[in-house]
Write a structure and sequence with these properties.
Blueprint: H1 7-26, H2 34-44, H3 52-59, H4 63-75, E1 79-84, E2 87-95, H5 97-118, H6 123-146
Antiparallel strand pairs: 1-2
Helix pairs in contact: 2-5, 3-4
């Protein structure tokens, strides 16, 4: 009898393998953490102003975690937080020239990394993979809405 495989455990294992691999490779290329690099990528590819709440929602992380990440990025010169004229309580996240330069380097790295992950996987298999991931995400979000 084949033992039951657990989705959450398989995803967690894969996540940790990828995290470790990226961390090892990125330590040579950037002083940014993977999360900080992701935030810069998100800001740079947005066609609107980005605020802390947008980052919380996009990355599904808590306000306190985003606050720590942004504070570190601001301290290290990757972002500025600028007050918005229409509401002094809001502060948009603005990348600095240092972030722009770093982003160009990291973009190439992640494009190449994604190609390595796709090796030996057909387009049909990738479509199925993303369909399954979307269904899992939907199931989790449906449960969160009930709670």
């Amino acid at each position: 009898m084949k033992s039951r495989r657990h989705i959450n455990f398989a995803i967690k294992q894969l996540y940790h393998i990828i995290e470790r691999d990226i961390d090892d490779r990125l330590s040579e290329k950037s002083e940014l953490t993977k999360a900080q690099g992701g935030i810069i990528h998100f800001i740079m590819n947005s066609d609107r102003d980005i605020f802390q709440k947008d980052i919380e929602e996009e990355f599904k992380i808590r306000r306190s975690t985003v606050s720590v990440l942004l504070s570190s990025m601001e301290k290290n010169g990757y972002i500025r937080r600028e007050t918005v004229n229409s509401d002094a309580r809001l502060r948009k996240i603005v990348p600095t020239e240092k972030a722009l330069s770093n982003h160009r380097k990291l973009h190439g790295f992640f494009e190449k990394y994604d190609e390595e992950l796709r090796e030996g996987i057909s387009e049909e298999e990738l479509d199925l993979f993303f369909d399954v991931i979307d269904k899992i995400r939907h199931n989790i979000e449906k449960k969160e809405r009930k709670d």
